[in-house]
Amino acid sequence: MDILSAYNELGSFRAAAALCGTTHKTVRRVIERRNVTPADRPSRPKSTDALADLIAERVRATDGRISAKRLMPACRAAGYSGSPRHLRRAVAEAKASWRHRRRVYRPWAPVPGEHLAIDWGQEGKLHVFCAVLAWSRVRFVRFAEREDQATTLALLAECFETIGGVPAVVLADRMGCLKGGVVANVVVPAPGYVAFAAHYGFRPDFCEAADPESKGIVENLVGYAKSDLVIPAGGWPSIEAANESARNWCTEVNGRIHSEIAAVPDVRLAAERSVLRPLPSLRPAVAPVAVRKVDRLRTIRYGCARYSVPGDLIGRGVELAVSAGELVISSAGREVARHRIVGPGELSLLDHHYGRAAHEPVRAIRPRSDAEIAFCSLGPVAEAFLRAAAASGTPRLGQGLAAIADLGRAHGTEALVAALERALAFRRYGAADVRSILAAGTGTPVIRAAGERLAIELPSVPVRPLSAYAIESAR
Question: How high is the pLDDT of residue 397?
Answer without folding.
Answer: 85
